[in-house]
Amino acid sequence: MIRIEHLSKTFHPGTMNERPALRDVSLTLSRGDFVTIIGSNGAGKSTLMNCISGVIPADSGRIVLNDIDITRMPEHKRSRYIGRVFQDPLKGTAFDMTIEQNLAIAYCKGKRRGFQPGISRKERELFREKLSLLHMDLENRMTQKVSLLSGGQRQALTLFMAILTEPALLLLDEHTAALDPATAKKVLELTDLFGGNPDICTLMITHNMSDALAHGNRTLLMNDGRIAMDISGEERSSMTVEALIAAFDIQNDRMLLK
Amino acid sequence: MTYAALLGSLELGLIYAILALGVFLSYRTLNTPDLTVDGSIVTGAAVSAMLCSAEVHPLLALLAAFAAGACAGAVTSLLNIKLHIEPLLSGILVMLGLYSINMHIMGNRANVALLKSPTLYKLTQEAFSECSFTGLLTGGAFLLVLAVLFYLFLNTRLGYALRATGDNEAMVRASGINSNAMKILGLALSNGFVGLAGGLLAQYQSYAEIGMGTGMVVIGLASVIIGETIFECFSKSLPLAVRLTAVCVGAVLYRLAIASAINAGMPANDLKLISALIVTAALSVGPLKAWGRQLFVRKGGL
Fold first, then answer.
1. Considering the entire predicted model, what is its pTM?
2. Which strand ranges, in their side-by-side order, compose the sheet holding A226-232?
3. Hey, which residues 66-95 in chain B have their CB within 8 Å of chain A?
4. Residue B158 distance to chain A (closest CA, Å)
5. Residue B247 lies in a domain
6. Which residues of A touch B166 (CB under 8 A)?
7. Does the domain formed by A1-81+167-258 have CATH 3.40.50.300?
8. How many domains does chain B have?
9. Chain B residue numbers touching A86 (CB-CB < 8 A)
10. What mean pLDDT is reported for chain B?
11. Tell me: the pLDDT tens digits for A17-51?
């Protein structure tokens, strides 16, 4: 469960470029929630995610994850509770290392990293077994370098690495935006599979309005650093893309209308 | 080339291979060209020489040389991480500062001779007096042990974290690894190797000298690049063990190239220029190939 209280962030304060990115955002998610976030460029979606994951510090407010206050916790420490997939497929994996080595790094999250062997035989078996769930034939390519994989395969692998240690929170920042439609669909199917885990709380940013309504159980619309709309349940299931656009005059060339 | 010159350059090559492994760690694994090397190799040599002349066991002296080099590397990394000084500039600053520190270590002398003091090479020669390859075997055994340990380390959980840090910092932090700690560890280890090479070099040539570090980073880079370029002729993607071997072979080949250049009558003063040219040539293989291909395509089109 995650509780965000009065979170604010302003970039370049006190300068001509001063830009408030988050204005007093409060939000509570329960265990098993799968929330999609939409909003135009500069609405604060990515800033919200970066504040949660610790890439940038919040100016004020509190972030509490499973009763642990992580507001001031360094990024690498809170990563233990958080899985992340970035928009750029290159950002989620170590390209010069093999698939199994990448998995091993993700698998050691929260464990002590000392002089133990990088991968044990047991871990290798586990990875092989679990990778076959992706249906991408990656389980037979485990000793190949990640640089040989396509963007879609990398995103699938990154997503898999993010949930490997069952984090409390899964953050997806437009993770299908750089993929072709067919691959994006496949990665979204996997997202549904993993995001549907009742123990994981998922936040997914997307620019695709129909995706935002088709996946998850709750949708947020952000505008100018605030949560402008928060729908779930009955209200959400009766919502259409057209109604969403009509309700909020969103003018954004990147917003896909279908 | 005379037999003695050949043997000498092989022996030196094995020592420089340790330097090359250190440079490999910073330049290839961590993706930062680290100029601390020119200073930390002298630090290692100075520490090793001073301890040897104080009758400390040569192996202990080498351990101290490793530690001294590692400290220098850690300082460079801290300047970069805590004070946000560019990696290249941090290295230059530490290298400059080390000059004075090295002078202090050597007791304000520009050189320390080990004519009467025990060294690892003298010890092995005494132990196996009938063998004429003790220098080669000592250096070889030392390098082998070190390279194997290095390889094993890079395949531990910690080693994986270190390697991934050079590849992708965002991913490393998202995996719960303190990337800054990894950078410090990496540069410390890298310069530890360099200090060790300096310490061994001082024991091999029986002296340490304040100016011996000039251009060492270039020699290390040359070894890494020459080795990789040659081995990549056989396979595009080299496994880690092969890459480490390539780096060591590159260091020996570099020494042989220099020795044959001197043998061919090149003045010793031109050595540094030749070193710079060799590295430039090795680095430009990629772009030159691309130009060649373009030229070929253009001609083919006509």
1. 0.90
2. A82-85, A169-173, A201-205, A34-39, A218-223, A226-232
3. none
4. 5
5. no
6. 96
7. yes
8. 1
9. 170
10. 92
11. 899 999 999 999 998 999 999 988 888 999 999 99
